[in-house]
Amino acid sequence: MPVWRNISLWMDQLDEPLAPRTSLEHDLDVDVAIIGAGYTGLWTAYYLKRQAPQLKVVVLEAQTAGFGASGRNGGWLMGNLLGEDRLLAGLSPQQRRASFELLHGIPDEVKEVIDREAIDCDFRKGGVLYCAARYPEQEHSLRGYLAGLHRQGLEEADYCWLGPQELTRQLRVTRPYGAIFSPHMATIQPAKLARGLAQAVERLGVPIYENSPVIDWRHGGLRTHQAQIRSHWVVPAVEGYSVSLPPLGRYQLPVQSLLVATEPLSAATWEEIGLDRGQAFSEGSRQVTYGQRSADNRLVFGARGGYRFAGRLRHDFNLTESEIELRRYLFGELFPQLKKVRITHSWGGNLGMSRRFRPHMLCDRANGLALAGGYGGEGVGASHLGGRTLADLILQQDTPRVRQPWVIQAGGLSALKAWEPEPCRWLGYNAIVRSFVHEDQVLANPNAAPWRRKLASSLAGFMEGFMK
Ligand SMILES: Cc1cc2nc3c(=O)[nH]c(=O)nc-3n(C[C@H](O)[C@H](O)[C@H](O)COP(=O)(O)OP(=O)(O)OC[C@H]3O[C@@H](n4cnc5c(N)ncnc54)[C@H](O)[C@@H]3O)c2cc1C
């Protein structure tokens, strides 16, 4: 299927022929029907079957395993959860520490599974560098962020400040103001993880039906074009595609993020840049940038994309020249030697943003509904926690995972905060993003007057506050 190969650099790199699995053509009675063969759906299936092999579990996928964000992301496997600081704020220091440890353990838990299942997905746990590398205000805001993390009980061993020289030992950028370093992060080849996990799930006896979009779902079952499934549990695991399964689109805004990959770079170029042990990196602007050095020595670099009116999904990820050039500009500011490098791949995908940036893992036992999402661009690791937590919840296992503030066990979907109706969402989202772009343009201009810099940052900070 060449069209699936074009989804991303990662899908293009797969050795397998990407032959479609069979689609569902007959009715079924199962215990758990999972919609979506991305990480959330696959991890849920994996942990359900590992713990309860007798369960009848099935996965329905509209396209192919890894078609969604799971086969397209930046490969940051993070040991955290978006907005964890706010989610954990009400806990005692001991509880908070235990929750942080649960989150920090995610990359190692994934590593355990990929070793057990022989999934080669270029896993390297080199940590992450959140760099102040373009303008001095980045140092101020990152230091403030770090102080907040330490106030929450995180320690130097979890997040520490690297001065210019220490940063330069790991990553050489033009203007090294400093960086936050955290060891709780690995980089991976995302599609290899998704595809390998799909095979592991099949080995456990879970059929995955591809080219089988679910067109209707309710408590107790779902329907595709050709078949019906009766199921005790339904697990919609469609994060950025929630609009395709009403009413879930009310709770997760589909936002796009866009990436580029360079051609493989020479050893000499990497000697100049660094990143010699799989570290992930970003630069501290509100453009939400993320990068890694791939196992085959490319620079893979992404930044925030957009939101379309009424949550319309973006299907065409042939990036425009200006979308590619923005990303080239951003990494070229860090690494001028790459300003003219050849970009071989560009792509993007839809991810799910929950209101107030609060990821959720929800179980509605009365109606047989379990779902996790709203990871907001930080879902590679979070979806592992999500899938594992949903399995615990469905199997009624009392683990530390089910006792976290992001777990919802009462109230069903109505316990989630819905996004505002249109046109408020579109106007709000775009106004906020514009304020971020404006801030970045002003701060990146060394001649901008101090009052302009301050005003641009205050405005962007004020606008960001609306999303939380
Ligand atoms: C470009 C990009 C970069 C990112 N980078 C990072 C990163 O570096 N680190 C990080 O932590 N997070 C990142 N994320 C977020 C992360 O990739 C996602 O949060 C995570 O992969 C979500 O997994 P999922 O299984 O919940 O959803 P998905 O992987 O999107 O899977 C959903 C699946 O459901 C299927 N589907 C949709 N509708 C239906 C239907 N009606 N019937 C049947 N199947 C359906 C889709 O085809 C898809 O395969 C990124 C996201 C994007 C888009």
From TrEMBL:
<dbReference type="GO" id="GO:0005737">
    <property type="term" value="C:cytoplasm"/>
</dbReference>
<dbReference type="GO" id="GO:0016491">
    <property type="term" value="F:oxidoreductase activity"/>
</dbReference>
<feature type="domain" description="FAD dependent oxidoreductase">
    <location>
        <begin position="31"/>
        <end position="393"/>
    </location>
</feature>
<protein>
    <submittedName>
        <fullName>FAD-binding oxidoreductase</fullName>
    </submittedName>
</protein>
<dbReference type="InterPro" id="IPR006076">
    <property type="entry name" value="FAD-dep_OxRdtase"/>
</dbReference>
<dbReference type="InterPro" id="IPR036188">
    <property type="entry name" value="FAD/NAD-bd_sf"/>
</dbReference>
<keyword id="KW-0560">Oxidoreductase</keyword>
<dbReference type="Pfam" id="PF01266">
    <property type="entry name" value="DAO"/>
</dbReference>
